[in-house]
């Protein structure tokens, strides 16, 4: 069983993103389950596609229990505001996965990143690899060669999917609690292998999209902050509603 977890930093740039952390925890739990079931050669690799500063994410993942780290080195263009389109990231990840000597049985991503929260990289990567995909999964299990994925719906309903491996799953909150690496594990992580790959050498496919810029939304109406005691705030709000004939 060979598992690949795609990670990136959170908005602070110092820690693994919250949803990527959940994906990594899901992969490590599956590895432990496989070991208990007597499955041999179960491993978890962690990959990130970004600038050299993202190397800390790889070492963090290794400290949590990943077996190997892969860093696809890319430098976002200043013209794009330091952002990389999901299609380009997915294309580079897809090119790397396709070139792997031993194919991955399962690829895990977070349901969305913490910055743009678009939730596109996982499904796009699955499309590049022509691989089955399940999104917004809260819990996973392996039964023979079948991935059992549970997704959470509104009003507490749960959907259970059975997906043949290989497959890609994006993970959201609801079951997994990321483990905290101990100091000894973080020190040992320094000796674990990290493979550096030049993103430009992968020859990745992309849609040709690029960011043309980011703009703040226009202010269409004014806001007002009501200060004072709770009684004063309630009275001011009540007066506001009466003045506009809303009550």
Notes on the structure:
The chain is an alpha/beta fold and 247 residues long. The protein has a single domain (2-202), classed as Rossmann fold (3-Layer(aba) Sandwich). Helix content is 30%, strand content 24%. It has six helices and nine strands, in the order βαβαβαβαββββαβα. It has helices at 18-36, 55-64, 86-99, 121-129, 183-189, 230-243; strands at 2-6, 43-50, 68-73, 106-110, 132-143, 146-152, 158-164, 167-171, 194-198. Strands 7-6-5-8-4-1-2-3-9 form a nine-stranded mixed sheet, with helices on both faces. A hairpin with a 5-residue loop joins β6 and β7 (158-164). The mean pLDDT is 85.
What's the total count of β strands? Answer: 9
Domain module count: 1
CATH homology-level superfamily: HUPs
- What would the CATH topology be? Rossmann fold
Principal-axis shape equals globular
Helix tally? 6
* CA-based gyration radius: 22 Å
* Widest sheet, order of strands: 7-6-5-8-4-1-2-3-9
Strand content: 15-25%
**Mean pLDDT, as a whole number?**
85
**What's the CATH first level?**
Alpha Beta
N- and C-termini, Cα separation: 63 Å
| Topology as a string of helices (H) and strands (E) | EHEHEHEHEEEEHEH
- Biggest sheet overview: 9 strands, mixed
Structural class of the secondary structure composition?
A: alpha/beta
The low-confidence parts are none
Please state the second-level CATH architecture: 3-Layer(aba) Sandwich
Helix content: 25-40%
